[in-house]
Amino acid sequence: MQIVNTVSELREAVKIWRLAGESVAFVPTMGNLHAGHLQLVSAAKKNADRVVVSIFVNPTQFGVGEDFETYPRTEREDRSKLETVGTDLLFQPAVTDIYAPDAKTTVTVTDLSGLYCGASRPGHFSGVATVVCKLFNIVQPDRALFGLKDFQQLTIIKTMARDLHIPVQITGIDTVREPSGLAMSSRNGYLTNTEKRIAPRLYQVLCAARDAVLAGNKTYADIEQEALQFLQQAGFQTDYFSVCRSSDLKKAAAEDVDLVLLTAVKLGKTRLIDNICFSR
């Protein structure tokens, strides 16, 4: 596995592959890799000749008081894991390589960025869209792969690429879960032992809400309210629980077929997000 730290080094490596007629897949990450990330790399290898993975803890997507300074950084372990799954190149830039000191340009996907997690984390999705746009321009991949766990993020990135005519095929890969059902996340390491026993209830509530939607005996508003009450009683601080159209994340109407349940909560100091996509 080749490891590079600068934009020029990465572009030179990709140039050589392109001259050889090879396709490139890209998996952007913030490190502290788990099985979900490795599944993305494995899927990328099936769909391209070469796979680039980036590890970059992006400061612009962290708000005031969030965990940028303490976000887990496990570079040695991450490199070993990426080598195991056959990554071709690891890109680990410094902040100064991605953001010039006098940078003036940001990318914002309006409307979508203000919903759900965007409402409680102002500026978060602008930071995400900006850094992903930069990474797409640097790597210029044929395909990029993201986990479906961050469904709103994936929708925003797809919209950005479409609107800016970025020639990349974006693929969402199914969420990898613990045996308990808890969606794998780098932030799960913040959970205490007691919280780890409570956390799987988030997915259980999502499954129950999906079943209630499919049964058709309750309004979506009632399903959302019941889910929020159950989560609060279980010990979560709730941010939102919403029945949405999967296409644009607007509130679902009775006639909508393709749906996604989106939720975000806090358990202790840990923020957890999860979702379920399905059709009725």
Would you kindly provide a written description of the structure presented here, covering whatever features stand out?
The protein is 39% helix and 20% strand. It has 280 residues and is of the alpha/beta class. It folds into 2 domains: 2-173, HUPs (Rossmann fold); 186-279, 2-Layer Sandwich (Pantoate--beta-alanine Ligase, Chain: A,domain 2), CATH 3.30.1300. Strand 5 (143-147), helix 7 and strand 6 form a beta-alpha-beta unit. Helix 6 crosses helix 7. The chain is globular.
* Global shape: globular
Distance between the first and last residues' Cα: 44 Å
Tell me the CATH architecture of the largest domain: 3-Layer(aba) Sandwich
CATH topology group of the largest domain:
Rossmann fold
Mean of the pLDDT scores?
97
Unreliable parts? none
Tell me, what is the CATH class of the largest domain? Alpha Beta
**What is the C-alpha radius of gyration, as a whole number of Å?**
19 Å
Order of helices and strands: EHEHEHEHHHEHEHHHEEE
Class per helix and strand makeup: alpha/beta
Our count of helices gives 10
How many distinct domains? 2
- Report the major sheet: 6 strands, parallel
- What is the share of helical residues? 25-40%
Strand order of the largest sheet: 1-4-3-2-5-6
Share of residues in strands: 15-25%
Structure summary, number of beta strands: 9
Within CATH, the superfamily of the largest domain carries the name HUPs
Break the fold down into its secondary structure elements and pairings:
Layout: E1 2-4, H1 7-19, E2 24-29, H2 35-47, E3 50-55, H3 75-84, E4 89-91, H4 95-98, H5 117-120, H6 124-139, E5 143-147, H7 151-163, E6 169-173, H8 193-198, H9 201-215, H10 220-234, E7 237-245, E8 258-267, E9 270-279
Parallel strand pairs: 1-4, 2-3, 2-5, 3-4, 5-6
Antiparallel strand pairs: 7-8, 8-9
Helix pairs in contact: 6-7, 9-10
